[in-house]
Amino acid sequence: MIKLYNTLTRKKEAFKPIVKGKVGIYTCGPTVYWYQHIGNLRSYIFSDILRRVLEFNNLKVKHIINVTDVGHLTSDSDEGDDKMELAVLKEGRTAKEIANFYFNEFVEDFERLNILKPLKWAWASKHIGEQIELIKILEKKGFTYKTSDGIYFDSSKFKNYGKLAKLNVKGLKEGKRVSVGEKKNKTDFALWKFSLNLGERQQEWKSPWGIGFPGWHLECSAMSMKYLGNIIDIHTGGEDHIPVHHTNEIAQSECVTGKKFVNFWIHGAFLLNGDGKKVSKSTGGLYRVSELEEKGYSAPTFRYLCLQTHYRKPLKFSLDSLDASKNAYDKIKRRIIELRKEKHKGIDRTKSYLNDFLKAINDDLNTSRALEVFWKVLDDRDFDVEKKLKLLEKFDEIFGLGIKNMKKEDLKIPEDILKLVNERDKARNEMDWVRADILRKKINEKGFIVEDVSGKSVLRKKTDIA
Ligand code: AMP
Ligand code: ZN
Fold it and tell me: Hey, whose CA ends up nearest to atom 23 of ligand 1?
């Protein structure tokens, strides 16, 4: 039995899929106006572990992640400007170019972190028709109204509004701390926004209500329904999505279908700066994976760090804590390589260890407890070596640390890499930093990291976990 914590009930519940043996998961994905930092990536490591645990339990998972390339305003609650359009002004590239660029960077991070890719990346801008259809249904049922800047959802007409976040809607209304403008209620949200100055935006579409673009929350309702059906098993995202984004997804979806939208809402806690402050992409403050690599920390080291803390607990990030993870990860690597050389026969304890492991991961994805079992197995000198290795590899189907591929790093550096390093040294001597940086990236693409230590180039191979 798998137990998962459901934000909707604030309880751990036994997970039961709608269709026997199959699970649909929808994960709120990136807004592709900028790089994803390691905080964002912690969220996807969590949904990756969830998926792996379900698959480990022989369930067939259909995983959808959306890509937001339109409609996400600087504030989650319909205020400010569209983040993509702001990026267009900042970068001088088209919205499409920007979206593709940051999406590709994001996918590279997935690969580095050994996060399994979804069955489908669902792009918001490619599902405008589906979103318009939902608004039409809501309009017909009387849940919408028009203001000078768009079509809004009337949250007072949905009696369960705010149930996910346990919002005190009445209190919000009475307090009116924030100006509602033309909105009828503070918690109402945009379904469709008009282009106020036609042609000014790069992304706008015709609709029965006028030219414009969809409200941010709508894409997730439309695309999850399209690919996973009207009722879905599991919906995930970062905890910041509970009060606004997911609350609004529930409201509009349940008003469209008249049914419960999602059975299990599962949320990952934030990765915080060392000082405990929340970070977001717009305020900066957290590294990207490639920046950690440049500092000498491989992506699996960060993955290991995330596994050590339960996904529902905030995780304070610091390079010191990453150092500790690096040491642990390197130790695992050395031990696995040693074990491969050992031959001794011993007791078979597979069954009992596997049982402990399953208990941990099936208890709301308790990866830190599962890691304890992993270390116990690794340290058990009486356990038959061959069976031990097989079991550790089996555990790694959840951890994704690349145990199968751990090998003594090839210390021989290929000729072409040496040539690039020499060229880079030359560029640095000539103070041609732009060229030196291009060459560093080239070296990086070929699987090596070059660092400058006391004015000298030091070369390392990236950890291979493919
Ligand atoms: P965004 O690209 O801003 O839409 O965010 C992508 C995902 O990252 C969402 O699921 C957010 O909830 C999540 N997220 C944002 N910041 C953090 C953080 N510091 N720690 C963990 N998850 C985060
Ligand atoms: Zn979403």
Answer: 40
